[in-house]
Amino acid sequence: MNDPIYGFITIPNTFIFNLIEHPYFQRLRRINQMGVSYLVYPGAQHTRFHHAIGAMHLMQQAIYVLKLKGVKITKKEQNGLLAAILLHDIGHGPFSHALEGLLLPSVSHEQISLVYMELLNKEFKGKLDTCIQIFKGEHPKKFLYELISSQLDMDRLDYLKRDSFYTGVAEGNVNSERLIKMLNVVNGELVVEQKGIYSIEQFLLSRRMMYWQVYLHKTNIVAENILVKIMQRASYLIKIGANIPCSRALKEILQLKNSTYNTLGNPSEFLSQKRMEQFSDLDDFDIISAIKEWKNHSDFILRELSRRFIYRDLFKIKMSKTPITNELKKQKARKIQKKLGVSKQDLHYFLIEDQISNQVYNKKTQKIKLLNKNDTWSYFSHQSDPFQGQFLSKKVIKYFLCYPKI
Amino acid sequence: MNDPIYGFITIPNTFIFNLIEHPYFQRLRRINQMGVSYLVYPGAQHTRFHHAIGAMHLMQQAIYVLKLKGVKITKKEQNGLLAAILLHDIGHGPFSHALEGLLLPSVSHEQISLVYMELLNKEFKGKLDTCIQIFKGEHPKKFLYELISSQLDMDRLDYLKRDSFYTGVAEGNVNSERLIKMLNVVNGELVVEQKGIYSIEQFLLSRRMMYWQVYLHKTNIVAENILVKIMQRASYLIKIGANIPCSRALKEILQLKNSTYNTLGNPSEFLSQKRMEQFSDLDDFDIISAIKEWKNHSDFILRELSRRFIYRDLFKIKMSKTPITNELKKQKARKIQKKLGVSKQDLHYFLIEDQISNQVYNKKTQKIKLLNKNDTWSYFSHQSDPFQGQFLSKKVIKYFLCYPKI
Amino acid sequence: MNDPIYGFITIPNTFIFNLIEHPYFQRLRRINQMGVSYLVYPGAQHTRFHHAIGAMHLMQQAIYVLKLKGVKITKKEQNGLLAAILLHDIGHGPFSHALEGLLLPSVSHEQISLVYMELLNKEFKGKLDTCIQIFKGEHPKKFLYELISSQLDMDRLDYLKRDSFYTGVAEGNVNSERLIKMLNVVNGELVVEQKGIYSIEQFLLSRRMMYWQVYLHKTNIVAENILVKIMQRASYLIKIGANIPCSRALKEILQLKNSTYNTLGNPSEFLSQKRMEQFSDLDDFDIISAIKEWKNHSDFILRELSRRFIYRDLFKIKMSKTPITNELKKQKARKIQKKLGVSKQDLHYFLIEDQISNQVYNKKTQKIKLLNKNDTWSYFSHQSDPFQGQFLSKKVIKYFLCYPKI
Amino acid sequence: MNDPIYGFITIPNTFIFNLIEHPYFQRLRRINQMGVSYLVYPGAQHTRFHHAIGAMHLMQQAIYVLKLKGVKITKKEQNGLLAAILLHDIGHGPFSHALEGLLLPSVSHEQISLVYMELLNKEFKGKLDTCIQIFKGEHPKKFLYELISSQLDMDRLDYLKRDSFYTGVAEGNVNSERLIKMLNVVNGELVVEQKGIYSIEQFLLSRRMMYWQVYLHKTNIVAENILVKIMQRASYLIKIGANIPCSRALKEILQLKNSTYNTLGNPSEFLSQKRMEQFSDLDDFDIISAIKEWKNHSDFILRELSRRFIYRDLFKIKMSKTPITNELKKQKARKIQKKLGVSKQDLHYFLIEDQISNQVYNKKTQKIKLLNKNDTWSYFSHQSDPFQGQFLSKKVIKYFLCYPKI
Question: What's the CATH class of domain B2-216+363-394?
Answer without folding.
Answer: mainly alpha
